[in-house]
Fold:
Amino acid sequence: MNGHATGTFDITNWTDLTTEEKAGATFGRNHIAKTFHGDLVGTSTTEILTIVTPEGPAAYVGVEHFEGTLHGRKGTFALQHSAASHNGEQWMKWQIVPTSGTGELAGLTGEGTIRAEDGHHYLLDYTLPDA
Structure:
């Protein structure tokens, strides 16, 4: 079954774990907790590695563990993040880690985007084996 999920999420906790200043950039590691609304309902924890330069461009990579429901199907899965910004443009992408789905989300694959305007909005295109 192919699906399309949309909605929003709230960042409920952001903890800076480490920060290191290097020539031309600041590197960081952060732990984030989120609550999802819409077609995804549940919570997640995320670990990200960030880089910020004095000129403003920034990027991050990370992994996220989601627990909840996707269109009413209960389970867990992991997401891989990549994001960057430059010249006022920002892109944030995520991909479901293959074979990470459990419960009714076993076999889940897909990818999507995040938009951070007036809150955090997600889009996830996915494939899930028929039950």
